[in-house]
Amino acid sequence: MAGSSGNSLIATGSSTTRLLGTFQGVEHVFLVGVAGAVPHYTDFEKHVRLGDVVMASPPKHGQRFIYQFCESVKEKPDGEIQFETKSWCPVDLAIQDIQSGLSDKFSKEELPWIQYYNHGLEVLCDHEVPEENTDGLGFVDQGWLRPDSETDKLYMSMGGGDIIEVGHPTPRDGQLDPRLHGHSVLHTGPIASGRPVALDDQLRQEYAARNGILAFDSDLDAVVESIYGNRKDQYTLIRGMADYKDGTRRKEWQQYAALMAAAVLKTVIQEMA
Q1: Fold of 6-272
Q2: Which of 31, 34, 171, 203 could cysteine-pair with 247, CB 3.0–4.6 Å?
Q3: DSSP character for 63?
Q4: What is the pLDDT of residues 166-192, one digit of tens each?
């Protein structure tokens, strides 16, 4: 995408419409990139962290959608917050079924997306770094490596502009955390966008809690609307988590998150074969 301004997003939607109109034989559409994670401050199983990957799927309960755009936020006279939204969901959820199967494999040692990520590192190699920083790869652009977990800082808004740093929720006794071994956790759930909520910490958390949102990205509603308008029955979004906003903030996780999302995409495609 050329940028996150309104004009560039509209242009991206128009380009998608032209591409899908030209190549009418396209049956599956994947939107792959980075986004902002929605953390859960107390529940490890619901917690989405930097470097994780969210694959767009409908929530387990309630309205069926994989992507939702928040158009506006209104406060009723009684103080209740009302969100005006627009939602999309594929007619055929075959891709989402594959994604669900992948998210259940995180406890296995041989994870195909890790293998594809390592292969991507080899392709992207361009200069030498110390051997201890490469996991034995020897030559690699350091920006594509998984950043130190200490850089994954989690903050909570207390209102009134006050923010405090908090710890990440921990797994129960005996529960595996793949991140301790440098692996990303795969999640399935809805992705959303909309600057009225994505960039306001308190609204963002309330909106996510109401709708089961796992990640926010920079407004792709025009692109998703184009896919829907071109009657594509199977599509999804695969997003690597680069920050806790909308994927545009913390530069140190962006390259790793993008490459991991691409590795998960390749895994999904292999499962479709």
Answers
A1: Rossmann fold (3.40.50)
A2: 34
A3: S
A4: 999 999 887 888 898 888 999 999 999
> Under a CB-based contact definition with an 8 Å cutoff, are residues 74 and 82 in contact?
yes
Whether pLDDT at 3 is above 90? no
Dist. CA 5–CA 202, nearest whole Å: 23
Q: 178-210 as b/e, with b when 16 or more CB fall inside 10 Å? A: bbeeebbbbbbbbbbbbebbbeebebbbebbee
% residues pLDDT > 90 (the chain):
59
Q: What is the pLDDT of residues 43-69, one digit of tens each?
A: 999 999 999 999 999 998 888 999 999
**What 3 state SS string does 146-188 have?**
CCCHHHCCEEEEEECCEEEEECCCCCCCCCCCHHHHCCCCEEE
Beta carbons of 222 and 20 less than 8 angstroms apart: no
Question: What are the domain boundaries of the chain?
Answer: 6-272
Whole-number Å distance between alpha carbons of 180 and 248: 25
Exposed e or buried b per residue across 102-140, where buried means at least 16 C-beta atoms within 10 angstroms of its C-beta: bbeebeeeebbbbebbeebbeeebeeeeeeeebeeeeeb
Question: Mean pLDDT over all residues of the chain?
Answer: 87
At 242-269, the pLDDT tens digits run 999 999 887 899 999 999 999 999 999 9
